[in-house]
Amino acid sequence: MTESFATAMVTVIPIILLVAVVEVQQRGRLTVETLTRLRLAVEAERGGDPTDATAVLREARMSKPPALATFLWGVLCAAHVVAELILIFWLAGSERPPGTWQASFVAYTAAVGFVLVILVAVLSPYFQAARIRAERRPRSFL
Fold first, then answer.
1. Tens-place pLDDT, residues 29-81
2. Which of 31, 56, 83, 88 is least buried, going by the fewest C-beta atoms within 10 A?
3. Domain region containing 87
4. Does 83 fall in a domain?
């Protein structure tokens, strides 16, 4: 690992991590807002108000990220934190070994994080539209 690579990556990795955290928080906020509306709709229905709780429930299911995606974001964030720590300790040392595996880990972590952040931002609306279409499709239990 070279000093210029480590110096550049020690700056890039927190940016990727920040974008990932903002994306996760945005999804979480959307889920909380939808579930709040669902609770209000259910309460209104119990009180005799003809609010359609089914539509709100469907929307709540759409806004909740799949468990696999949530797990992958967690793994990605953990990998970025580990990569950042590797870089900080490598730069802090007075004696700098070549760090071949460290450089590879940092490069792969940053590349995967960068690609996933872009893919999630671009493909998320398409996945949500596909889930809505799937919910509208009539189901046969035969």
1. 777 777 777 777 766 666 655 455 566 566 656 555 667 777 877 888 899 99
2. 88
3. 3-25+65-136
4. yes
